[in-house]
Amino acid sequence: MRLLMNEHDTQESKALAFAAEVGHLMLENGAEISRVEETMERIATCFGVDSKDFFVLSNGIFTTGRSYAKVLFIPFKGTQLQKVVEANRLSRDVAAGKLSLDQAQERLEEIRNMKGEKPAIQILASAVGSGCFCAIFGGSLMDCSAAFVIGMLLWAFVILAGRKNISKIFSNIAGAAIVTMLCILFCGIGFGHSISHVLVGSLIPLVPGVPFTNGIKDLANEDYIAGTTRLLDALLVFFCIAMGVSLVLITYSHITGGMISL
Amino acid sequence: MNGIDFITLSVAGQIVAAFFGTVAFSILFGVPRRYYIHCGVCGMLGWTFYIVLFRYAGFSEAEATLCGTILVALLSRFMAVWFKCPTTVFLITGIFPMVPGGGIYWTIFYLVSGQLRHALSSGSTALMVTIAIVFGIILVNEIPGRFFKSLSVR
User: Fold this and answer.
1) Higher-confidence position of B12 and B117
2) Smallest CA–CA separation between B135 and chain A, in Å?
């Protein structure tokens, strides 16, 4: 048994560790399993690793080589698709032989520190999204304006909840409840005509589009464990939203003694 | 009132709203800035196809969703090869208008308010739409990558 690692093994371990880090970054920002595996494979091959095995789950990566083994636990953080795009580009540059391992490591660090849009712009985007989807689902101009304002307030809440590390389940229930209350309030004072249209529009920012689409793609790629986990995640968020909405509607109907007419 | 009606807004208005709505969500999902417009176009074309089929060609919601999804998935795979960028970016944002968020809330609302018959009908529609999206994505996923590469030789 060898006690000292030779030069080649050290190099191999470094390359595998780097591949694992890239995979980590991609997975936590919403990439599909097959893409993560493919990218890690590509990077490891280009740095001359001949013995390598990767096993990627929706929240973990197992990496082993001849003298390297690592398990990474990766909770899903939030989606920054730009990091997936840049990590993919990085792997292509590595494959083209443009980067040494150290240069690639620097690039990875840059990508990791990339910032998303500012909170103000996110809030505006959520507002525009809510307004537009309210229009798509048949709301009038007044309904859309109401959805615009509620979408804005909703995303301010989502950002706040993210900073306070409030659990996903609670923040979705609370977010949906807040939206429903505001809808009833706004339509009550005449800002918006139909509660239903305003409600559907302003709830849209909470819809779990990323885990839903990724789950389907993973199933299509025959990554069944990751696919079902992600679809279950999306389903849970849907249930939370529904719970928040119905909680407020039921309470309201008890107070006023009748179901609100939508 | 039963479900959501798409009658209020003209098709032109729908198209504009779908474009800006998709761009707004590509911002929320952290898509790189240079692809905002591409994502918007992808979502807009998918929704336009959907709404035209649904309103004028007599397609059901699920059928129209299947066609819309196939279009978006094809577009996103083509763009992925063209811009050398993961498919996911265009797929997630482009599909977004068709995800049956509305249908699911309606189902819950009817359940809560005790209108079981309505709940059943909107719930089954939401389920069908979901299955249509799944099928659309899986179908396009099965097309080998060579096909898209050969189309985008430049």
Assistant:
1) B117
2) 9
